[in-house]
Every structure is written in structure tokens, then in C-alpha cells.
Amino acid sequence: MDLSQQSFVSFFMELKRRRSESGHPPSHATMLGGVPGDQQTYGALIHEEGGTFYARDSWRGRGDEPNEIHPVIEFMNGISRWHAEGGLMNALAHSGYRGGRCVMMVDRRLCANCHKRPELEQNGVVNAARALKLNELFAVEYLPFGPPSFRKHVWTPADLIMQETRETPDWAREMIARASLTA
Which domain does 24 fall in, by range? Predict the structure, then answer.
């Protein structure tokens, strides 16, 4: 396992801890139909200027996430804004960070509303990244079956959707390695 995968595992272990403390089962349990009613996704977002944020689905009014939708991302589709991915972008908007690069990590696959619906202007993560004037976004999905594996995506303002990649950009590898797990 290379350094970036070790860093990914560290963040996903933190998400697993947060999930457990909230009384939710492991993310793979719901993906296999193991626990009816629990469809929670947990996520982390790291901004290159040092901010690390955490969120989960239906985040409004829970934990340390801002309680109101920030005007910068109000236009996110009605589904994505309440997903962990929307909560992460909302926390970033409330923090005041604009521009720069971000790494987003979620403990299950990105849904179509958050990831791949440009024809319907439903691509929630990309729309929020544009609104926040991000220069690049690297997203990592944890695939919980078998040994730790990850699906990676990269986005720049020239892209309509996030593009799947096998490589971890050097900037993302460095950001993840130096990020604090105690946001």
C-alpha cells in the first residue's frame, strides 16, 4: 500500500469512527442491504489552505456543520444539498474559503445527483465547486468490499463532470498527508 492509500485509510478510519459514534452501521452494511433505513454517507473535505471539514447525509442541525444553506451553494439540486457531499461544500462555503484545491472523501459511492448528471444540471458537487471558484477537486470514494480500494475522480473548471482517474495528483497526496484529522 503506497503512502496515499495509507493516508486515505486514515481518513476513512476517522469516518468509520464518526459513523460508529453516531450509532450507524459500517457503510458496507447498508450497501449490501444489511440495515434497512440507514443510508448515511459520511465524508471529509480538505482545503489546501488548511481547513478540514466533516459531514454526513441529512446533516442540517447536527454536529458541527452549519445549520443553514450558504447562499453560494443554494442552487445545488435539492437532493445533493442534503447529502454528505453537499454538507461538505456548505461547510466550505461558510468557512469563507474560495478558490484553491480540495480533496473530498466519502465512505461510499457518489450518487448520480452528486456526480454524473450534467445533462440535467444536477451535478451537485461540480456545481458547488464552480460556485466556490475551486481550481481543482479530487474526490475519493471508498469501496468497502475486499481489501481497501478507492475510486478516484478529478475535476477542473474546464470539465462538465468529474473524470475518473487511477492516479492521485501530487498536490492531493501532499494535502492528505499533512491534513489534521481533528477538524
Answer: 3-30+41-178
